[in-house]
Design goal:
This protein is α+β, with helices and mostly antiparallel strands and 257 residues long. 28% of the residues lie in helices and 25% in strands. 19% of the residues are buried.
Length: 257
């Protein structure tokens, strides 16, 4: 028997993990029946009322209570089963190699950083996967609480491991050098001043630091935002571009000197 679909009054299809605020309309020894506004009752099994064991449904909810619930599954008969235990953003079966995830840095070690991506365990970004450039410590790039984006490079439910890479989403060094040679022209122009020959050569061989690489990436995004916006938003984006260009030029000039 195929699984039926259930739709809300507005036509929205009810899917797993959807969040609702519902009202308990009945309790039984097996759980509770909750009205979530879809013209049919939904059920919460006693095992889904909270993470800790529950002996009696009324110890957790009573008729008339408003509760936060998430769709756990829809049975082949079209019954909506709910849970009051907030589901993980990413379950093991949903985590695939190559997918891009966002998360918050929750722990920093000498060998890398652990990122909470909403899975059962945090993902590890090894220090070698943080950036293409050399860094002495993960703290050279991130701090606890920072939001980061990374690509899944390996996942093992058996080992309970998720390996991530931040540098996989960064431009490669050769791409960065193209940007260095093309974009921050002010730095090169300054470098070809009094000691033109030696400084110009230094500019050609210049290797950007991780901070400069991050600034270049931010500059790219700011330019794209400026080109796609208009009015006040374009003015703000243009200002951001100018600030980033000035900062990048200043940093590079200091290195070249």
């Amino acid at each position: 028997m195929s699984v039926q679909t259930v739709t809300a009054p507005d036509g929205t299809e009810i899917k797993r993990k959807m969040h609702f605020v519902g009202k308990v309309i009945k309790t039984t020894t097996a759980g509770a029946i909750v009205d979530i506004g879809i013209n049919k009752p939904a059920v919460v099994h006693i095992s889904q009322l909270r993470e800790e064991p529950v002996k009696k449904v009324e110890d957790v909810v009573k008729v008339g209570d408003e509760v936060d619930v998430w769709v756990r599954r829809i049975t082949p008969k079209g019954i909506v089963e709910l849970t009051m235990i907030k589901p993980l953003d990413l379950e093991w079966r949903e985590i695939k190699k190559g997918m891009v995830v966002k998360g918050k840095v929750e722990r920093i070690e000498k060998y890398g950083v652990f990122v909470n991506i909403g899975a059962e365990v945090p993902g590890l970004v090894h220090i070698s996967e943080m950036t293409h450039g050399f860094i002495r410590s993960p703290r050279d790039l991130v701090q606890e609480g920072d939001e980061v984006e990374a690509k899944v490079i390996a996942v093992s439910r058996r080992k309970r491991q998720i390996k991530l890479s931040m540098k996989a989403l960064e431009p490669k060094p050769e791409e960065i050098m193209k940007e260095v040679n093309r974009e921050p022209r002010k730095a090169k122009k300054a470098a070809s001043g009094a000691n033109g020959g030696s400084k110009a050569a230094a500019a050609e061989d210049y290797v950007p630091t991780p901070m400069e690489m991050a600034l270049l990436e931010a500059l790219k995004k700011a330019r794209a935002e400026m080109e796609s916006s208009s009015g006040k938003a374009r003015t703000e984006a243009k200002k951001k571009v100018q600030e980033l260009e000035a900062l990048l030029s200043k940093r590079m000039q200091a290195q070249l000197n």
